[in-house]
Design brief:
Radius of gyration: 17 Å
Helix content: 40-55%
Strand content: 5-15%
CATH architecture: Orthogonal Bundle
CATH class: Mainly Alpha
Number of helices: 4
Largest sheet: 2 strands, antiparallel
CATH superfamily: Winged helix-like DNA-binding domain superfamily/Winged helix DNA-binding domain
Oligomer: single chain
Order of helices and strands: EEHHHEEH
Number of domains: 1
Length: 125
């Protein structure tokens, strides 16, 4: 493994029918919306289109009983977005699930990492 690469780790996604209400990318998007107050600013920070970010937010909001993100219409005063209290609770629970999963898998991950080559392939399939 090259020194600048993050170590391999499991990634947790919550599956709900054909939807993914929450996973690593959506959790990062929620954190960035909370930080920036904007879906478009969060999308830019993730090198993602606004439309893609908006669709991810829409999926999250449709999957949960109450919205994780609230938006305000743009215009002269500007728009914006904020993570709701419910969204913050869900995000915190998800991050705790990640910590627990990492801890539970630590020994198996160490064994798998020991068998990996020194650096990942340039063009994986």
């Amino acid at each position: 493994m090259e020194k600048n690469d993050a170590p391999p780790r499991p990634r947790l996604r919550i599956l709900f029918g054909h939807a993914i209400p929450l996973g690593p990318g959506k959790a990062e998007l929620l954190e960035l919306i909370a930080e920036t107050g904007s879906i478009s600013a969060a999308a830019r920070r993730m090198n993602m289109s606004y439309r893609r970010a908006w669709l991810l937010v829409d999926t999250m909001n449709q999957c949960f009983r109450s919205p994780l993100v609230e938006t305000a219409t743009g215009g002269k005063g500007g728009g914006g977005a904020r993570i709701t209290d419910h969204g913050l609770t869900i995000l915190n629970r998800y991050r705790e699930m990640e910590r627990k999963a990492d801890a539970a898998c630590a020994a198996d991950m160490a064994a798998i990492i020991a068998e990996l080559v020194d650096s990942p392939p340039d063009n994986p399939h």
